[in-house]
Amino acid sequence: MNQKSCPTISFLAAVVALTLLVPAATVCNAAEKPNIIFILADDQCWETLGCEGGEVQTPNLDALAKSGVRFTRAYNMGSYSGAVCLASRAMFNTGRTVWHCGSVNQQIGKWNSRNRDKSMPNPYPDTSTSWSKRMKSAGYTTYFAGKWHVPFFKTNEVFDVVGTERPGMPKDTQEGYLRPKDKNDKTWLPWDTSKGGFWEGGQHWSEVLRDEAIGFIDQAAEKKDEPFFMYLAFNAPHDPRQAPKSYVDRYPVDSIKVPENFLPKYPYQDEIKCGKALRDARLAPFPRTEYAIQVNRQEYYALITHLDDQLGIILNELKKRGMYENTYIFYTADHGLAVGHHGLMGKQNVYEHSLGAPLIVKGPSIEAGRTVDANVYIQDIVPTTMELAGLEVPKPEIEFESFLPIVEGESDKGRDLIYGGYLHVSRSIRKGDWKLIYYPDVPVYRLFNLKNDQNEMNDLADDPQYAGKIKELKQALTAEMERLDDTEIEKMRLKRDKASKKKAG
Prior knowledge:
It is an enzyme of class 3 (hydrolase). This protein is of the alpha/beta class. Helices cover 33% and strands 14% of the residues.
């Protein structure tokens, strides 16, 4: 075992390094600071919590929510990449908004290309600007394990201790796509360890992460005067959605509800790049069948419940070590997931089920058992943790906003607007109970009243009585796009105009 993957060796080395590098004043105050744990699931929709009243069994997450604050309107901002998780994690680890991260990602791509301009400046962000390095500057020993998927930084350059680093997703197999074709299709089963994926290495990846987290907690318990920042990133419940058979058996397929907004085919799937060319979309057959959606949701739920059990063991270790009460825990996911909503399977869209993620915050200064409906971005966690660590949030470098006043009960005001964007093909704006979706390649606008229509089924855009509301939301969307330097739609238009002129000439 090398040093990178050995928590014991890495932790001791990190403690020595931290003592030498952190200013004396910071070290002296370290004992007064709370521990902070950030737990990130992958592809978990906001609706998949037992306490949301749905079908999924999540007793440990429900208990965590009961001991802290649960947000019902927490959103990812969108993505410049088909791998939405990549963009979301870039935002977390830089504190920058989606298109600013996208610009850096594009420059990195050019820098790494074989034919790049050799005079081009190095576009990689300085490691000191990473979330983890900022936390380290406040006297925290920093730890990471799990899914990284952030091309901007290398984990061993921005964290003191690094456990097992995982790729964007477990390795998939061809048998896992366009299935099940019918009730007799058993070509791929979640508990079949021969298919690799989450089973690669002999132990389920969620269980490996659990064990490494416990190992670090045990090490940290011996250094109680030194606070830690722990970043745990589960690959679950991303596909391939593999869990032990006992978990799958908890969800008989015939009992799984098909989403109310189920469609055999989404009418704009190709225009918004969610058709057969999208990998995520091929997880179920075309056209969608109710049975295929039931099976996919069954496997999704099983993997979430399995993750929940690993989380429970980690939290129990904190309690056993006497660290739970002085620890802030932030639980969320990088975004949501459709899994049959609207005939979609992935997260590459701007509906509530795919932009929205669970968000639970527990900590010493937080009144237990509150549920808030304030609008926040999940990446607002970054400046919130910085404030808890005693840091001044640097502006404009950190572009997200702390929601510490909300979790501490000093305010109930969240964001007035929530923006969503995917590539150049879809945009949305939420203001109050109203949401406008725009598909420039159709082109079409869609209007929903989320108070009366949470599942976004009743499009009001063609109703003349809402013309004023559409105008208001169009203006809000345009202003947000300008604020966020979102020029993707215009760049695509110019690109197409240039191609058209070249073809004509």
